[in-house]
Amino acid sequence: MTRRDTLSFFHEPFGDAFYFGPEKISPAYLRWPADKIQRSGRGHYTYDSVLQSILTADKDLTKRVFIKDMSYHIVPPIHSRTARAPSLQAQNLSNTSSNPTLLPTQVVDGFKFVFLIRDPASTIPSLYQCFIPPLSTQTEDTSLDPTELGYRELRILFDYLRDKNKNPLPLLIDADDLLADPDAILHPLCAYLEIPYSPSMLSWPTAEDHAFAFSLFEKYAGYHEDALNSTALVPKAEKKDAAPRSSEERNDEWRAKYGKEAMQIIRSAVDACRNDYEYLRSFRMRPSR
Q: Which pTM does this prediction carry?
């Protein structure tokens, strides 16, 4: 988001159709306050209207389009495996039988993909905090849905692109590698995306930077508080010779922090995502140094 001069940004645009629009696939709205969709101002978004906004931005030859989104917004999750996007089907846009997404094949082929993964033992406890006070007062949700964690859908999409021998093949980054040495990951990432690298991309200290980030993140209030309160991406300090924590140690940590029932929910979700994460991690880009 620090390259606003050369990039047009979309933050989880297909989430608008997935959660809020007339074609919504997620059952989350059943848990929400009755007027949340109306208050969001996003109840009219269809998959086609979201796609058209992206394609319109792509006509600006002075900027490239950069989209951050969740795999399960376009690869139907297990609770809705047969879901379709009627607004896209009505356009008679072609789709191949092997394409696992809701999007037309020619649209998928036009993207250059970067996958970002993170150990579910880190991701899921962090996400769980969004469903308990104080953050739940902002997210207006109190239930972690284990079918909307994205690892399964990420693997499906990744394998589809690999099997197609898409050129270039998708790039996959593990968040632990990124946090350990941001510069070593961003250099090859920028080369892959054909974006000039600058160390200034690692910091966003100005009021303008934060106002722009807030404008993108405000539609998911409560989910991005750490990012909104940050000013830079710096290497994460690690304790030397620190042994990986065992499942039992993590369970004890989660039980102490969230209670026994929550620990069981978190552990079940972490275990369910483990195989897909480890599979994807085997393809991760190695740091350049």
A: 0.93
